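Exercise 3.2. Students should predict the tertiary structure of the chain below and write it as structure tokens, then compare their answer with the key that follows.

Predict this chain's 3D structure.
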Amino acid sequence: MNTYQQIVLASRPQGHVSPDNFRLESVPVPSVVEGQVLVRNHFLSLDPYMRMRMEDIKSYAAPQALNAVMVGGTAGEVVESKNPKFKPGDKVVGMFGWAEMGLSDGAGLKKVDTAQIPLSAYLGSVGMPGMTAWYGLTQIIAPKAGETVVVSAASGAVGSVVGQLAKARGCRAVGIAGGPEKCAYVVNELGFDDCIDYKAGNLKADLAAATPDGIDGVFENVGGEILDACVARMNPFGRIALCGLIAGYDGEPMVLNNLRTLLTMRLTVRGFIVSEHPELWPQGLTELGQMVAAGKLKFRESIAEGLAAAPEAFIGMLKGKNFGKQLVKLI
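Answer key:
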């Protein structure tokens, strides 16, 4: 194979993301020089943060450059190595982006063990999404046994882990998801105590019924009316881990009508970026890995086939069409 495929950002979105914002290219397979590793990617991770990177605005990270490979986490196999730390056949995770192959000097590349944990899980429950869930729950919400934790986008890659970690800590876990199928999965498979279908049109009443003792912690992935409804149910000194605001990623305005509750209930609201806390990753990933290996942390994946399918899969994920972690299978 003399060439491989990659997808670059061709233009910045005007409102909703369009397939025209991306361009599929064929490029030569690079030569490997001393100290380098060539990786064939098996899976590409698609995540909501990518939508914000596509904008040329001030944020926690530099914008995705135009005509450059789209950012993204990858899991694959070393096919050629001139680096003593890696050998052909090693399974690795890295950040090669929307590409079938990647060349690295070894920095940021991590060997993983697939004996008990599937390779794809290192992009989900035992990767950045899992760590995001672990950090927001344990470090910001810091729930005590018996408290009620509400998770939006509860069937997704992050939300599904949050609820299971909360249950393991003796909490009441309540999910919010879109549609009866996702809610049934959240309760019956993941073990949440309840799940509210926000598409059913009874968000406030259903949330009140599911949280009779109020809400102590909110893990927020969506924002908008979902966050507003949760804030209204918060107990004194409640904690909100602000992970994502996907409801506003395409430019729709978000209003918080219950802003006064932040004061009257003395709430803590904290946004976070999990990559800024590398010192905690070993602790979090150890717990997550042990739970997955023991079958105590369940997860689901939506898998698109082939790199060319990535743009449509990404657009679908932003609209909530994925079920669990959204991946692209590249081989």
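Discussion points: The two ends are 13 Å apart (CA to CA). Residues 179 and 197 are 5 Å apart (CA to CA).
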